[in-house]
Write the structure tokens for this entry.
Amino acid sequence: MKKMTPTRTSGKAPKTVPKRSRPDRSGKQAPPPKPAPTGRPSVKAPLTSFGVRLREAREAAGITQTVLGETTGFGKRSIARYEAGGALPSIQGAAALARILGTSLDRLGGMDSDQDPELARMLAQVAGLSEEDRAFVRYALHLVTSKNRK
């Protein structure tokens, strides 16, 4: 008696091969398909640039990672991670860092790349002045800026 061989009973699904892009009706080659998302956006550049600006602001203020970590309650390891680009603080945490370092949140976030860092530091300190001193600063700024408009 002759043995019969079953046809395709392995139980495994055949491998799928990616489709080749075919020319459309105009004869042009269709663009290749986009790769599937990995689930994690690439955020290396913003993390790194925030960390660089944080380190520069901390060093300009003459504060160590340990002191900054203790002052903010984050701890030295968190500050080191922020500076290395491994993590980002919450918006409230970033605001606290900016306040302690005498800089602006815009500066740490890279939103004011054209602004003079010393001027930004001085303007951030205006908030801590008395109302009378703030009024004087406003008046002085008004005089200087109106003079330059003419």
